């Protein structure tokens, strides 16, 4: 993070969507229904969120088709940047989401299986709309230097890939942004893995979104100050009405983090 | 009925732009099209685009739209957005050098890696930043140091200082909006910039350039 530019740090609420409904899993289990994606997106828009991210966690094709409709409806009503991830396997999936109204598409597992997909998609649609979701878990033991690996399948399957090296490789292949999630912290509400966030953020020159573990407004602030993140993503603290986007913004301002001034809607 | 055409040349997400225009101009007809006749029937033209300049130019050529876009940019209220702004200039540094439409004199440059290095800036310039108007213009009506959403790695450098409508800071001041006769163009995404963006689009829809360009008086 630097103070020498005018760019505001971003607050991004994330909506996990399963078959057209917003849900949020704690450690990807115990899913609670939190509502209608269009309605929730409108609320975040009126509260002045900087972007919205939808992660499609539907397992089926039908669920994916529903996601296209959701994106189309949201993009028709909410005039703010919209990122969609989950189930993106090939360049045509990227195209489908962009055509439906997404501004950016997050590629996750498919990038692990076929890294060239990132290059193909960046070439075809531009780096600015290609986000690579990096799901990392600490693999070093206590006493050892910190090390994280990429995991797939909701954090269950190790890949043997070093997270920092992977992040660099994705940036080289043309990713425009990284969505970095600590699988150790996701759903725990104990704060970001700041060492991971800092390690990745320092290793690449593209923006990094910190994700996984937010349970308080201080955690968001820490993500910028200690993690070096360009944006922070959180789900549950916003969904269940615990905090409003405006309160998160005030916390950033109090901490001296450049933040967009939003007129009350 | 007033017709607003969004040029559809396969470069990016036009759905949001069309919806945003429909929202600010409920009595206008918004069409998304690559058809030259349909474009010619429109009262106002929006030229959006995201992605790479080379692909943009080759798509315009493939669709035989180069001359149409040049002509419309002289005749109608014309709004370029993001890549649609960059393409108006004569030359871009992107991918080792690309020719643009040459509608406005100037060039498109990349944020330098050194600047990124010394200022610790990330490229692309992605997110919300503040635009400062350099001149009074109807496009900016009611906008006081607005925040807009940017996503880009290249920026426009007009030859004529008087074409610069607004600037933004990212390690350096850069031109983020231009205005020349009936052409206006912005580097940021008004269709993604919430209230400020909708205000700018609404200003464009209401705008009556003083030049010979038509604006909204046509009866369909």
TrEMBL record, chain A:
<dbReference type="GO" id="GO:0000107">
    <property type="term" value="F:imidazoleglycerol-phosphate synthase activity"/>
</dbReference>
<comment type="function">
    <text>IGPS catalyzes the conversion of PRFAR and glutamine to IGP, AICAR and glutamate. The HisF subunit catalyzes the cyclization activity that produces IGP and AICAR from PRFAR using the ammonia provided by the HisH subunit.</text>
</comment>
<dbReference type="InterPro" id="IPR004651">
    <property type="entry name" value="HisF"/>
</dbReference>
<keyword id="KW-0028">Amino-acid biosynthesis</keyword>
<comment type="subunit">
    <text>Heterodimer of HisH and HisF.</text>
</comment>
<keyword id="KW-0456">Lyase</keyword>
<dbReference type="GO" id="GO:0005737">
    <property type="term" value="C:cytoplasm"/>
</dbReference>
<keyword id="KW-0963">Cytoplasm</keyword>
<keyword id="KW-0368">Histidine biosynthesis</keyword>
<feature type="active site">
    <location>
        <position position="135"/>
    </location>
</feature>
<dbReference type="Pfam" id="PF00977">
    <property type="entry name" value="His_biosynth"/>
</dbReference>
<dbReference type="GO" id="GO:0000105">
    <property type="term" value="P:L-histidine biosynthetic process"/>
</dbReference>
<comment type="pathway">
    <text>Amino-acid biosynthesis; L-histidine biosynthesis; L-histidine from 5-phospho-alpha-D-ribose 1-diphosphate: step 5/9.</text>
</comment>
<dbReference type="InterPro" id="IPR006062">
    <property type="entry name" value="His_biosynth"/>
</dbReference>
<protein>
    <recommendedName>
        <fullName>Imidazole glycerol phosphate synthase subunit HisF</fullName>
        <ecNumber>4.3.2.10</ecNumber>
    </recommendedName>
</protein>
<comment type="similarity">
    <text>Belongs to the HisA/HisF family.</text>
</comment>
<dbReference type="InterPro" id="IPR050064">
    <property type="entry name" value="IGPS_HisA/HisF"/>
</dbReference>
<dbReference type="InterPro" id="IPR013785">
    <property type="entry name" value="Aldolase_TIM"/>
</dbReference>
<feature type="active site">
    <location>
        <position position="16"/>
    </location>
</feature>
<dbReference type="InterPro" id="IPR011060">
    <property type="entry name" value="RibuloseP-bd_barrel"/>
</dbReference>
<dbReference type="GO" id="GO:0016829">
    <property type="term" value="F:lyase activity"/>
</dbReference>
UniProtKB/TrEMBL annotation, chain B:
<dbReference type="InterPro" id="IPR017926">
    <property type="entry name" value="GATASE"/>
</dbReference>
<comment type="subunit">
    <text>Heterodimer of HisH and HisF.</text>
</comment>
<comment type="pathway">
    <text>Amino-acid biosynthesis; L-histidine biosynthesis; L-histidine from 5-phospho-alpha-D-ribose 1-diphosphate: step 5/9.</text>
</comment>
<dbReference type="GO" id="GO:0005737">
    <property type="term" value="C:cytoplasm"/>
</dbReference>
<feature type="active site" description="Nucleophile">
    <location>
        <position position="82"/>
    </location>
</feature>
<keyword id="KW-0963">Cytoplasm</keyword>
<keyword id="KW-0368">Histidine biosynthesis</keyword>
<keyword id="KW-0378">Hydrolase</keyword>
<feature type="active site">
    <location>
        <position position="189"/>
    </location>
</feature>
<keyword id="KW-0315">Glutamine amidotransferase</keyword>
<dbReference type="GO" id="GO:0004359">
    <property type="term" value="F:glutaminase activity"/>
</dbReference>
<comment type="function">
    <text>IGPS catalyzes the conversion of PRFAR and glutamine to IGP, AICAR and glutamate. The HisH subunit catalyzes the hydrolysis of glutamine to glutamate and ammonia as part of the synthesis of IGP and AICAR. The resulting ammonia molecule is channeled to the active site of HisF.</text>
</comment>
<dbReference type="Pfam" id="PF00117">
    <property type="entry name" value="GATase"/>
</dbReference>
<protein>
    <recommendedName>
        <fullName>Imidazole glycerol phosphate synthase subunit HisH</fullName>
        <ecNumber>4.3.2.10</ecNumber>
        <ecNumber>3.5.1.2</ecNumber>
    </recommendedName>
</protein>
<keyword id="KW-0456">Lyase</keyword>
<dbReference type="InterPro" id="IPR010139">
    <property type="entry name" value="Imidazole-glycPsynth_HisH"/>
</dbReference>
<dbReference type="GO" id="GO:0000107">
    <property type="term" value="F:imidazoleglycerol-phosphate synthase activity"/>
</dbReference>
<dbReference type="GO" id="GO:0000105">
    <property type="term" value="P:L-histidine biosynthetic process"/>
</dbReference>
<dbReference type="InterPro" id="IPR029062">
    <property type="entry name" value="Class_I_gatase-like"/>
</dbReference>
<dbReference type="GO" id="GO:0016829">
    <property type="term" value="F:lyase activity"/>
</dbReference>
<feature type="active site">
    <location>
        <position position="191"/>
    </location>
</feature>
<keyword id="KW-0028">Amino-acid biosynthesis</keyword>
